[in-house]
Structure formats: structure tokens, C-alpha cells
Write a structure and sequence with these properties.
This protein has 80 residues and is α+β, with helices and mostly antiparallel strands. Helix content is 11%, strand content 22%. Strands 1-6 form a two-stranded antiparallel ribbon. A two-stranded antiparallel sheet has the order 2-3. The protein has a two-stranded antiparallel ribbon with strand order 4-5. 4% of the residues are buried.
Length: 80
């Protein structure tokens, strides 16, 4: 049986291979409960899993991004 791809390749950004992603997990304890930071994905139907909750992150541009750490920092702050 042939599996369907999870995400259609036509909606993936055009980045040089390899396609690598960085996700950031931020935990805290608030009122004695463990909390995790999530972002709401855009409602745009061209996005995979529109309007769903996700960890902040995204694709690494292997040409532009200096490191995985630098990739995880500034742009992700704009998503929250």
C-alpha cells in the first residue's frame, strides 16, 4: 500500500536541500502547572495544518542561516 505524503510538496518553501527544520520548546511552571509555548498556525489554506497549534519553528535556510541556534531565535519571537 502506498502512503500519501503528510504535506504536499507544492506548499513547501523553496530552500536548498537538505530540508531541515528547527522547533523551539519553551517550558515554564505557572501556578504549579507545567506550561508550554505554542503558536497558532496561519489560517491560509496554502499552509500545512491551517489554524492548528504548533511549536514555534520553521525551515532552516542552509544558505542564509548561520547556525540552528541563530535560526531559532529572532524570527520565532514574531510568531508568538
Amino acid at each position: 500500500m502506498k502512503r500519501k505524503p503528510l504535506v504536499q510538496s507544492s506548499i513547501l518553501p523553496e530552500f536548498p536541500r537538505p530540508l531541515t527544520t528547527v522547533d523551539v520548546v519553551i517550558f515554564t511552571v505557572l501556578n504549579d502547572q507545567l506550561q508550554v509555548l505554542l503558536v497558532k498556525r496561519p489560517e491560509d489554506s496554502a499552509e500545512p495544518f491551517p489554524n492548528a497549534w504548533a511549536l514555534p519553528g520553521g525551515f532552516v535556510d542552509v544558505v542564509e542561516d548561520r547556525s540552528l541556534e541563530s535560526c531559532a531565535r529572532p524570527p520565532r519571537a514574531n510568531m508568538t
